[in-house]
Amino acid sequence: MNEHTPKFPTQGLENAEFEPVNPTSNPTMGELISRRFSRRGFLKGSLATTAIAATVSPLALLTAEKAHAQTGSVFSFAEVEAGVDADHHVAEGYDADVLIRWGDPVTNDAPEFDPTAQTPQAQAGQFGYNNDYVGYVPLEGSSEHGLLLVNHEYTNAHLMFPGLVTVTDGEAQQGPLSEDQVNIEIMAHGGSIIEIEKVDGKWQRVAGSPYNRRITGETEMEITGPVAGHDRLKTSTDDTGTMVRGTLNNCAGGTTPWGTYLMAEENFHGYFAGELPEGHRESENYARLAAPGGWYEWHNFHDRFDVSKEPNEMNRFGWIVEVDPMDASFMPKKRTALGRFKHEGAESVVAPDGRVVLYSGDDERFDYVYKFVTAGTFNADDRAANMGLLDEGTLYVARFDEDGSMEWLPLTFGEGPLTEDNGFESQADVLIETRRASDLLGATPMDRPEDIEPNATNGRVYVMLTNNTAREEANAANPRIDNAFGHIVEIHEEGGDFAATAGTWEILLQCGDPEIAEVGATFSTETTENGWFGMPDNCAVDADGRLWVSTDGNSLAATGRTDGLWAVDTDGEARGTSKLFYRVPVGAEMCGPLPTPDLATMFVAVQHPADGGEDWDGHGRPSYYEDLSTRWPDFRDDMPVRPSVVAITKQGGGKIGTA
Known about the structure:
The chain is mainly beta. It contains ten helices and 33 strands. The longest helix is centred in the N-terminal third of the chain and has 12 residues, at 58-69.
């Protein structure tokens, strides 16, 4: 870790910038931006869209002309005031109701939450920790009755276990975890599936539902696709290389067109410790992943997390997992055709020819943007026929060129450098070592690619790039020696076809405070002092094609404001205008977001409230960590003091984002 090393082992991991591990000299996105715009002024707003679209296709040009014709913002709500405190705040005229929090019962046999008497068995049936991705699958097509799908990314032991942290002479110190506490952490990972229903305008959980269940770090899963059964996935407990226990570090995810739930495994390397045997074939593979990370203490009690004892176990993580929320008998599948890296996001869209395209970022400084295109086509009339679509297709990595064009490079064994001469003996090897294969293809190193959302209404794709303080070259579009606040890239797929292998790219926003000239932010002049943000992370495109962006890393020290959810205009004269819709308590990260199909509700995930934020006096630290159980009763029931999913609705009904 670098300057962001936390006080406690898992404090602030989500927004930490770790040392880059990409060894290539491929031109970075910062260098490409510099070359592209150094010879002319930075194109902004609809002018940039029109200029690029004119070189692409009639469809793209038509989209640009339509965007140019738009005048005002598509959002009309009264903006929230940016700031820092221990509460959450939503736009005037809206309600933000806590729907479920860490420890609340999910399964029918789960006990009520008691932080002083927590057990692995209890946690296995309760809502997990640090909720990130939020999905929704309608029941019988309803926007008011469906299944809530929630990823649980990681755990903060110092916030979970009363008494774990002690304070001596004003200094807080975390003690070692017991075996029970480690097992509670394992059970707090994975995901939750919960039936919910809107009653009298308010969302509530449906107790006793047969759909309610937990996916954990111990749930049995099948490995499918080209890597299934490969020797590099075989362990002492699975000599077939086809079965694995659990899924870990599930960050942003996705929902398929056929209603399955995708759980993307991100920083899986942090759960493993130990050293590989000298000369082991996985040494280079693991080094490219900065593995093992050794963030957790699980290896003290479980050999599978010690690479010196189970050197292949880590190859069984870093995939995208498909779960059928409608069928508890469906064993979750790790779909290896989609590649192995630190997946952030798994959002999909149906291309014009019926193939399904899935986008994912590799969330590390100087790593890559990917998409997967299925070989088969989506069948809207036969759900069962779609269940194997993610096992066959082509995985691509993006190369962004300085002239504003881009190419999707296929990660296919036997093509280009992906041959035996470079250590790949099969497609399985290419997928196990997706990062190294992408290095060889000349993909463009990016500034922490996180959530990536396709917009089916305009044929564009939005890439969230959170930050990269290791960037050393200033440029016209990002005039700073580092990219502390991140930016958003907009991809125009050729011909509006998401399955295309070429397209163009443009910067939608360069983030940060626009009042500080050296920051170089490019928000529109209509953006208020509350509307700008830094560190874009998760995002959503709603049914009207509007973009919502949530953040990770805003703080009292970094921006003087907490993280939150911003509504961002992408077209016309309002392009680049951003408005603050919802903000979270100090120390929390804003995750989700997820609008219902009827646009009447926005579900958001408030992750790790109270983690970090030591600069804010209101926490009363370090005593805060000593005995959390004495603090929880002091907070209101409608406040997300524990990791929570919040339902945001307009008072009196109506569409979110409007007055």
